[in-house]
Amino acid sequence: MTRLAVVLLTTVLVVVFALLVAAAAGTLARLDGATYPAALMRAATTFAAVLTLAAAVTGALAQLIP
């Protein structure tokens, strides 16, 4: 398996995980009584936060690997 394939598969996995977490956050917000726009904003914020966290972890791990 080439390095490019590993990077692409990992990227897809992170994006799918971020979508699942965002959907869960939006659903929980809606069940808590938030309006649809507020729940959508909470889901979008969660999606961006998960991607930002993944980028930060990747950057930290990249510095450890020579």
Number of strands: 0
The span between the termini is 21 Å
- How would you spell out the order of helices and strands? HH
What percentage of amino acids are in beta strands?
Answer: under 5%
Average of pLDDT: 94
Oligomer: single chain
> Segments where pLDDT lies below 50 for 5+ residues?
none
Q: What form results from the Cα inertia axes?
A: elongated
SS content category:
mainly alpha
Continuous helix count? 2
Helicity level, as a percent range? over 70%
Radius of gyration computed on alpha carbons:
15 Å
Main sheet attributes: strand count, strand direction, barrel closure: none
Architecture overview:
The protein is mainly alpha-helical and 66 residues long. The chain contains two helices and no strands. The protein has helices at residues 3-31, 36-64. Helix 1 (3-31) runs antiparallel to helix 2 (36-64).
Keywords for this entry:
mainly alpha; 66 residues; single chain
Summarize the helices and strands and which ones pair or pack:
Blueprint: H1 3-31, H2 36-64
Helix pairs in contact: 1-2
Summarize, please.
This protein has helices at residues 3-31, 36-64.
